[in-house]
DNA sequence: TGACTCATGTCAGTAGTATGACATAGATTG
DNA sequence: CAATCTATGTCATACTACTGACATGAGTCA
């Protein structure tokens, strides 16, 4: 198979494997979200708002791993399409708290089912113990990388 | 900390963690490659060519997780800048085997040092055993996701 | 209080990558 | 052998997210 043909460095590189895994996950998610007319960031934004209503543009950006400029563009389209609402002017400062509309919540429900099935497929074949160590390992990598 | 504040669903989602880790790795790599005038795909392409000379456009695309169209654009610029060479016409079929030039090899050397330091930082704080289980876990996720 | 720093929302421009489409070479199959 | 399928290289186009930049509000501190 291709794994035997590939150079050893590639196979021993956790960075390469991490990239491969994230690409595989992204592809799988795009595949199930595309029929619903959603991108991953689009879905992530709605999901985040469902769990933590009232989040601001910048907070949503951080939670979905995009810049606040990108999230701003997305929020404008979501607002135009009636999935979220923001007050015309900020209650305090410049921060505009965002809320899901009923339409946004309905749209999210379908997407959540689709995404959950992808995640379940990803984790199939892993025991609870294996999932736990994967969690710890990923957390460690994240912490080491972000720590400056 | 933010981990305590965040919703439980987020923290228990390995998919979310996987995305966070890959974003952290990508940012860290972009940070060290930018001063060298390289993107991640740019570096990955050179690295792959160093390990497996003569790879075609499509093979490089698969190895770096982009489409063959994107890789084609990149290869044209790499060829224009003298980092790689391709024969004017295909020895067999339509496949054009690509080779690193001396200039490309020199350029790659600096990048390799920078990227290796990032990977080492990512793995700092993980034992060999932890790295091994992370390897197995990621491999399992990849296999499950790609398996259709 | 006034100067400074930081975070936010937003606009404009750019870069990287993807999708769609086409022609062509090799492999497969009847 | 002819027809079909698969893979490749490439062009044109579109989209997603980024960087740069600006004005403004809030906290900090001398």
From TrEMBL, chains A, B:
Residues 11-143 form the HTH marR-type domain. Coiled coil: none annotated. It comes from the Bacteria. Transmembrane segments: none annotated. One of its GO terms (biological process) is response to stress. SUPFAM superfamilies: Winged helix' DNA-binding domain. InterPro entries: HTH_MarR-typ (IPR000835), MarR/SlyA-like (IPR039422), WH-like_DNA-bd_sf (IPR036388), WH_DNA-bd_sf (IPR036390). One of its GO terms (molecular function) is DNA-binding transcription factor activity. This is MarR family transcriptional regulator. It comes from Mycetocola tolaasinivorans.
